[in-house]
Each structure stands twice: as C-alpha cells, then as structure tokens.
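Re: the multi-chain job from yesterday

Posting the exact lines I submitted so nobody has to dig through the queue logs.
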Amino acid sequence: MDTLIADLKKQIVEQLNLQDIKPEDIGDEQPLFVEGLGLDSIDALELIVLLQQHYKIKLANAEDGPKVFYSVKTMADYIRAHQPKND
Amino acid sequence: MYKPVALSETNYILSSCKIVEGTILKNESLYFEARGLPVADFLIEAYNRWGAQYPKFYKMDQLSKLGWLAADILLKDTLNPRDYKPEDLGLVLSNANSSLDTDLKYFQTTKDFASPSLFVYTLPNIVAGEICIRHHFKGENAFFVSAEFDVDFIQQYVNNLINNNILQFCICGWVDLLGEDYKAVFFLVGKEKQPESIPFTINEINKIYQS
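And the result, structure tokens for all chains:
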C-alpha cells in the first residue's frame, strides 16, 4: 500500500480519536465527511492542523477544503503537490 | 399568565446515579466497579461495559464523558421518551472546577498547534449540551460553578422550574473533574411520586451525595 496513504489513515484515526475505526477500515477514496466516515466541522479543523503538524503544509485557500479533504487519496495528492522540497 | 407557585411543593427523585472512586451506583446500588484505573481508562471501561453505540463518546473531554455516562445510566429504565416532549426535560448542573481540566490541556496544545477539538470543550456547560444532544432534550439548562455542591440552591432552583411548569422533569446535580479527581452525582427529578421515588428534599439529596 502507498506509504503516505497508510500514514495518513493512522494519523487521522489518532488525531480525530476514532477509536472504533481501524486505519485499514478507511477506504482510499471513501468520503471522509457526512456519508463516509461521518466527520464534522471540528474534525475538518483537526485535519488542517494535521497537515501543518505532520507535513508543514498550510491550506492556502480555505475554499479548497472540501476538495482537499474529500478522501484520504485527495489529501495524499494535495500533500504530494504541496510538500516542501528538501533539496 | 405566569403564576409563581410555592417553592415548598414537593417533587420527587425518580432515580439517581453516582460515579466516584472507580464505582458507578444507580439508585444507590453498585452497577459497575473498576477501582484503581486512571480516570481516562475508567471512563472508557465504564462506557464499554455500558454497551452504548455512540462513537462521539471517544471524542469528548473527560468532564463530558463523566456527565454523559452519569446521565445515560440515570435515565435507563426510568423515563420513556414517549412520556415527555423535548422541551419538558432540562438540566441544572454544577461543579467546582468548571472546565479547568480541559482548559489546561488546551493551553498545552497552544504552545505547538492549538487543538480545535479540545477548544470546543473549554466551557463547563458543554457537558450539558452533549447530554441534550444524546437524549434530544430541549428544555432549559443551566450550569453553576461553586466551591461546594450547593444543595439548598440547586433544590430551590429545580423546584422553581418544575413547580412553575417550565420543566416537567429535570436532571440536576454535580459533575466535577480535575486530573484524577472526579465525582458525578445526578438526580432525575419529577412531579409525580412513583413506587421507587423519594422526596426531593435537602436531606435526601445530601444523603445520596455524601454516602
């Protein structure tokens, strides 16, 4: 499995205190909000913190939130496109 | 037209729930015991034993978990949701340490990344909100902070709400948590005497609270 996606699933479960969900239960393209994992607006803020804390990425435009946080895969795509280069 | 009625009119404690020192008592009988656990583990153990399916429980702060459990156990087999309207049931709660337990944890996170999910629990009355959401209550609710459980005041306040028909039922009591110290004592109070009910008097409240 894609390491970034696997890491994100673990971090989401930990950061959002989803104690009744295992990381492997989250589908790569499963919607995170409402009909998917059922996350709420406070969880959305925690996901923004997660991006900053673990990946040093600040969401440039809040209106991008629904697209970026649609699923674990869309989060991973956003991280890959915006992660600071080390070289 | 609003007509104040005598505050001395007797109401009844329909049930009680007490959570303290690793024990949970419903109507003064031991329901659950897990002494010696850190409070966080005790609350999760009690929740698992209780068997409710409510994933949001895990996201609550410790004070809300404590109050949520006390209310759930208090209401079990006591009130039928068909017997009251959402507006008929309210809460009057109190404690000594407000939301200080979570305030301190939140303050720690502000040194790095301030936690939104902790921030939303930095008010003591959030526990009342969690209970209202769980049970769909829409009646009046209030949360008072005082050094000790002010039985006289709470009894008078609740009697006033019930005797003036602002509420038909009221959950009242104490829910306090700071670090590893915690205590919740909840009473469900109503107008009508039931077979197992006891008078909502200062003596009876004190007897359960202090036992």
